[in-house]
Amino acid sequence: MLSNNWVVDNLVDTLTVWQEGMDGMWTVITAKPQDFQGGHIWSVIETIHGGLQATGVALLVLFFLAGVMKTCGSFAELKRPEHALKIFVRFAVAKGVVTYGMELMLSIFSIVQGIITNIMGSSGLGETTALTLPDGVLNAILDCGFFESIPLWIVTLIGTIAVLVMSLVMRLTVYGRIFKLYMYCAISPIPLATFAGEPTQNIGKSFVKSYAAVCLEGAVIVLACIIFSFFSTSPSVSEAGTSAVTIVWRYIFSIVFGGLVLVGSVKMSDRLVHEMMGL
Fold first, then answer.
1. Fewer CB under 10 Å: which end of the chain, C or N?
2. Rg, C-alpha atoms of the chain
3. Average pLDDT in the 98-115 region?
4. What is the mean pLDDT of the chain?
């Protein structure tokens, strides 16, 4: 039946395109950086990170000496046991952060992924909910004649264009997030080395908070996807005597409007999380 009606076929294709975009986005959000694209990108990131560790250690010593010179009024202060211990502990912690920086970054990511998993489990959704054409919309379309189907086809064409644009924007956004995760992990030895000096430690703190904010963007995006999934699968209410064009238009508008809200939430996820982190 569906293959004999061009309006229904076009509408089903539109929903299929949207569902494929949602599934692709969901896959990227829930993937680990180590496993994304078969792990080939991650192997390059690890190589870059390892190469920058030597630079990070050199900067660590530089920041440490600069910090000691700025915070100590004289070398006599270094003879005080409590002050010397504080400086030694700072240097040891900074050295450990630079040496095990990759493990630190992955630990933060794992914690956030656990939050995402809890959100998905609490919502009862393990993946995006498939979009299906409601029976009311389907019956309204099938009851229309050839000439009545022309405006319906135009409506579905508009919806198809909007869905294609929104799917592209969302895919670019989530891919941009995982690329930011890669860049943070690759260059982490350099900003983490600033923990060695008290005057420069705020740089390291801001870097870690920014990285955590990028990780948390995934939780915000997943929340937006879950809300949209329930929104799109909720049955629409139509009054008796409503024309087929109105029924289809309302259905397309609800999908497009919900999609726009979802895209807006995805696009603003970084700003929202950064505000939450006080950045």
1. N
2. 26
3. 89
4. 77
Q: How many CB atoms lie within 10 A of CB 221?
A: 25
Long-range contacts of 31-40 (CB under 8 A, 24+ apart): 31/178, 32/109, 32/113, 33/106, 33/109, 33/178, 33/181, 33/182, 33/185, 34/106, 36/178
- Counted domains in the chain: 1
3-state secondary structure 48-83: HHHHHHHHHHHHHHHHHHHHHHHHCCCHHHHHCHHH
Residue 32 has a CB neighbour count (10 Å cut-off) of 14
Residues sharing a CB contact under 8 Å with residue 34, sequence separation 6 or more, in sequence order: 42, 106
What pLDDT is recorded for position 184?
A: 93
Joined together, the tokens standing for residue 95 give: 């050295």
Domain containing residue 38: 2-276
Q: How confident is the model over 175-190, as pLDDT tens digits?
A: 888 889 999 999 999 9
Integer Cα distance of 267 and 166 in angstroms: 11
Count each helix (H run) and each strand (E run) in the chain, helices first. Answer: 10, 0
Q: Which amino acid is at 124?
A: G
- Scored b (16 or more CB within 10 A) or e, 173-206 reads bbeebbebbbebbbbbbbbbbbbbbbebbebbee
Two structure tokens written together for 11: 């509408």
156 touches 248 (CB < 8 A): yes
Q: pLDDT at residue 269 above 70?
A: no
Whole-model pTM? 0.76
DSSP strands (E only) in the chain = none
- Tokens 């939050």 belong to 115
